[in-house]
Design brief:
heterodimer, A: mainly alpha, B: alpha/beta, Peroxisomal Thiolase, Chain A, domain 1, 2 domains, 5-stranded mixed beta sheet, 14 strands, 24% strand, ACP-like_sf (chain A), fatty acid biosynthesis (chain A)
Chain lengths: 82, 343
């Protein structure tokens, strides 16, 4: 069953927490991965790959650069999830 | 039809000796920062690289190879005359022909050993090792010298903040020879030419021939830039960590080795972040020693695996007889992974 927006944000928070050590409560829709959450470009790749597995979605390299905020990633997953 | 007598090779092959050469000049991040807007902290956090070696005019591709090879031959306990073939993997030998391998074979004192260069980027060591194993077992050479050598400082754009800090120079060599037991596992290798643009040379050499330099990239002072290696960092990282971890696992499976059986992991020293993520993805047990030579050697492409192997043995972090997984991956894209017994 497709994940809801709330479930996706919660899932991303767990992933970001595991990869970058950011507290889950800091991962909010309006937060920028790079500027607010200190997720660098290489960690972002790890976040994306983990999100692909968790939400059964493909996020090609060309699309990764457009995912600036947690909201961008959530919208992308909502739209593309299997 | 006449009957052709076949060649007679050894039952199996193994790595008998290893040697390395690192250029005298050690280049810290501070030197890199003279030309790019970055910081030591940024470079270390993205790559794990603190210093690298850059070759001087005397430390040519041939000279570094000869130094490393001499050590590998001595370590193998053979003489140069016994070397039947010399395989050199490099992308930074700037004379199109002849191959640098012939000069190396001659200066080492081999007895007219077969000698040739191969081009397989950062997978070059694994490609050379695979050829060498085949030659020893098939019987076309009893001992084969496999050299990975690079002067990547010559192919580095020092004004590109994404790559200026990555590359280093050096040579690593191994001697592959006959064995009664298998000590080099099956190679899992391949190419993905659809991703050729992911790591590439900025401009091909023949662009310089037309006389029209207006289409060539210029540096900050308006001079035409020498070709350099450029890459799409995120795409390379994703491929290296997640796709190459699968290849590494396939090489373990092909050799009948479980992670618990493994003593040492020697991935291509591309970037510490790639190495750390591969270790995590492969779920390697704590007891496995991981090569992290990139910190002080940088990315030396085809030379990185034998250089890292030599250092682990020299420092005692690994020992002769240990079982090691080696995997190289890079421009092509190409890759090669296998399990070996350390010399």
């Amino acid at each position: 069953m497709a994940a809801t927006q709330e479930e996706i944000v919660a899932g991303l928070a767990e992933i970001v927490n595991e990869i970058a050590g950011i507290p889950v409560e800091d991962v909010q829709l309006d937060k920028s991965f790079t500027d607010d959450l200190d997720v660098d470009s290489l960690s972002m790749v790890e976040v994306v790959v983990a999100a692909e597995e968790r939400f059964d979605v493909k996020i090609p390299d060309d699309d990764v650069k457009n995912l600036k905020t947690v909201g961008d990633a959530t919208d992308y997953i909502l739209k593309h999830q299997g | 039809m006449s009957k052709i007598k076949p060649s007679k090779g050894a039952p199996y092959a193994r790595i008998l000796g290893v040697g390395g050469y690192r250029p005298v000049r050690v280049v810290p991040n501070e030197v890199i920062l003279e030309k790019i807007d970055s910081s030591d902290e940024w470079i270390r956090s993205r790559s794990g690289i603190a210093t690298r070696h850059w070759a001087n005019d005397e430390e040519t591709v041939a000279a570094m190879s000869i130094e490393a090879s001499g050590k590998a031959i001595a370590d193998a306990g053979i003489s140069a005359e016994q070397v039947g073939a010399v395989i050199v993997s490099t992308v930074s030998h700037f004379s199109q022909t002849p191959a640098v391998a012939t000069e190396i074979a001659d200066k080492l004192g081999t007895d007219k050993a077969a000698a040739f260069d191969i081009s397989a980027g950062c997978a070059g060591f694994g490609y050379g090792l695979t050829l060498a194993k085949g030659m020893v077992v098939e019987g076309s050479a009893e001992y084969v010298l496999v050299i990975g050598v690079e002067r990547l400082s010559d192919l580095t754009d020092l004004e590109d903040r994404a790559t200026a800090f990555l590359f280093g120079d050096g040579a690593g060599a191994v001697v592959v020879g006959p064995s009664q037991e298998p000590h080099i596992g099956p190679t899992v290798w391949g190419s993905e030419g659809d991703k050729a643009g992911t790591i590439k040379q900025t401009v091909p050499w023949d662009r310089f021939r037309t006389g029209d330099l207006s289409t060539l990239p210029l540096d900050s002072e308006g001079n035409v830039k020498f070709p350099a290696i450029t890459q799409e960092g995120q795409a390379v990282f994703r491929w290296a960590v997640f796709e190459m971890a699968k290849v590494a696992q396939q090489a373990l499976d092909a050799a009948g080795i479980t992670p618990d059986d493994l003593d040492v992991f020697i991935p291509h020293q591309a970037n510490m972040r790639i190495i750390d993520s591969m270790v995590k993805t492969l779920k390697l047990p704590e007891h496995v020693t991981v090569a992290r030579d990139v910190e002080t050697t940088g990315n030396t492409s085809a030379a990185s695996i034998p250089l890292a192997m030599e250092r682990l043995l020299a420092t005692g972090e690994a020992k002769s007889g240990d079982t090691a997984l080696v995997i190289g991956f890079g421009a092509g894209l190409v890759y090669a992974a296998t399990v070996v017994t350390l010399p």
